[in-house]
Amino acid sequence: MQNYALFTDTDTDITPEIAREYGYHVISMPYCLDGKTIYPYEDFEVFDAKPFYDMLRAGTLTTTSSISEEKYKAYFEPVLAAGQDILYLHFSRALSATFEIMDRVLPELREKYPERKILTFDLKSATTLSLLMIHEAGAMYKDGKSADEILAWAENEVDHFAMYMFVDDLKFFKRSGRVTGLAATMGTMLGIRPMIHISSEGKLVNIGKIKGRTKALEQLVNYVEELGDDLENHRMIIGNSDAGEMVDDLLAMLRERFGDKIQIEISMVNPTLGSHCGPNGIGVAFHAIHR
What we know:
With 291 residues, the chain is an alpha/beta fold. It is built from 10 helices and 14 strands. Helices cover 39% and strands 24% of the residues. The protein has a 7-stranded mixed beta sheet with strand order 9-11-10-8-14-12-13, with helices on both faces. Strands 2-1-6-7 form a 4-stranded parallel beta sheet, with helices on both faces. Strands 4-3-5 form a 3-stranded antiparallel beta sheet. α5 runs antiparallel to α6. The chain is globular, with a radius of gyration of 19 Å. The relative contact order is 0.16. The model has no long low-confidence stretch (mean pLDDT 94).
């Protein structure tokens, strides 16, 4: 057994199956529905994506919230008490205030367990882009790499993973306010799709606009071609929030452009972050020259 436990959270799109494959401990980031706070993979075992995103399509509003100090302690303290250190690879601080709460907890735990290390690393990303890095870090952990080795890898590589995306319906991003540079006048009725990427600061940034779904998908492929680095030795992930046929279309475009040597996987955006992006979102995460 490793002398440290590897943690991540559900906002990286990790599933219980992936967690078991690598040995991750998973912190559940909640969302709120009809006044009830729901913790993914604690309050349910399988994320049934289509009913969730159909519910959003029908007009149901969901919100998200931070987790409490007590919840953080419940995740971390049993591991520390059992004599293991912690390495927590988490989604972007720039997208949530939950880490301010975590920061209040860690000094207390370090004082209580002075012989233990609690290491955290900001992946400066969320959802599919985080998942790409979670896979690679998990493989290192499974191969017996130390926490310091994984941290060194993450510090060197974090800005060499990129994600570009768009959504069909802008109202969710507009409501959440989590995308910078997103003009309020951009409307779905006009068929305009803002192209969004995750910056090196871990923020969602609008970098342009494309008219038409097919052209927007083609632009995603163009970003991969322009920025992709060592693609044959790194997986690529198509992330989507129940985007239907667009997933198949994007997969076909990527295969046509890059061939069958590229490992391409498909992932569903978790419900917590799905509450912010809404349904019919799609993007691609890949190893890159830069973000």
